[in-house]
Design goal:
The chain is mostly helical. It has helices at residues 6-14, 20-42, 52-67, 69-91, 96-118, 130-142; strands at residues 45-46, 50-51.
């Protein structure tokens, strides 16, 4: 892949997400996978930084910032919402790690069902970078945000 611009990456990601049913599955499963990863990382406590989810979120936002200011801003809001949800769930005694693992596995099953329906392999088989592009694509597509 020669072009690594966000527009190019989003366009490439879209090519394996044309089927409407697959898109709908992605609207649910991708945010759940993203959240479940933040939730699992939330359980790894780190002095000063609070937890591994916060450290990872900062690094992820740097990736998005390098790619696109608009994606950075949009994904910062989405990521902050996931972190806030983790804070709240932990405060009410939710078994966060167990919940995250169950949600992660179920959402990936959904993803692969969607790609079976689509008839195309997930984009990350081509380039692992698409694991980071997918959440942005879903947020932009669902809310009809133009890049």
């Amino acid at each position: 892949m020669n072009d690594t611009s966000m527009k190019y990456l989003m366009t490439e990601y879209h090519k394996s997400h044309i089927n409407r049913t697959n898109q709908i599955i992605h609207y649910f499963c991708v945010p759940l996978i993203f959240w479940s990863i933040t939730a699992a990382l939330w359980t790894v406590k780190i002095p000063i930084a609070l937890n591994l989810a916060v450290v990872t979120a900062v690094l992820l936002m740097l990736y998005y910032l390098v790619k696109s200011a608009k994606v950075f801003l949009t994904m910062s809001v989405f990521t902050a919402a996931c972190l806030a949800l983790n804070f709240w769930l932990e405060s009410i005694g939710t078994p966060l790690l167990t919940t995250a693992i169950v949600v992660f596995v179920a959402a990936w099953v959904g993803q692969f069902i969607g790609h079976h329906i689509e008839g195309k392999r997930p984009s990350f088989y081509k380039d692992l970078q698409f694991l980071l592009i997918g959440p942005a694509w879903v947020v932009f597509k669902f809310f009809n945000i133009k890049l």
